[in-house]
Amino acid sequence: MDEQSQVKRRKGKGGRQALPDEQRRSNRREVWLSPLELADLQARAAALGITPGEYMRRSITQSPMPKPPVPQANLLAWRELARLSVNANQYQYAINSGAVDAWDKALIPELLDAIREVRFSLMGVDPDD
Predict the structure, then answer these.
(1) pLDDT tens digits for 43-55?
(2) If you ran DSSP here, which 8-state letter would residue 50 be given?
(3) Distance between CA atoms of 74 and 79, rounded to whole angstroms?
(4) Cα 58 to the center of its chain, rounded Å
(5) 8 A C-beta contact, residue 89 and residue 112
(6) Any alpha helices (H) in 2-122, and if so which ranges?
(7) Helices 52-61 & 35-48 angle (0-180, nearest 10)
(8) What is the pTM of this model?
(9) Helices 72-97 and 107-122 sit at what angle, rounded to 10 degrees?
(10) What DSSP letter does each residue of 99-121 carry, written as one string?
(11) How many other C-beta atoms can be found within 10 angstroms of the C-beta atom of residue 81?
């Protein structure tokens, strides 16, 4: 067999694999919206980082909406609180090892729990989940 026939045989159909018929979106419906309704739809979709069509589809099918993107300020605060959490862990270690006795032993775990709750709330996550 020559090299060209081997190359031709290896090439397949390009692109994504087709979805099964029951999953393929083949029906289209149009919706008339006022300018105010359209602006509201676009704002809600943009807040979640999805398209207006995806927002409508999820609303109709009662699928869960994605969590909104985390603001940059929250990410920076998360990092700063991580440093504070590390320092609190170091204090707890020093207290437990007897190197420091000026701190109340119960204070550091409470502080760590409070830091944890704030960090999770910055990301929009329930710390108890």
Answers:
(1) 999 988 899 999 9
(2) S
(3) 9
(4) 17
(5) yes
(6) 3-10, 35-48, 52-61, 72-97, 107-122
(7) 90
(8) 0.46
(9) 160
(10) S--SS-TTHHHHHHHHHHHHHHH
(11) 16
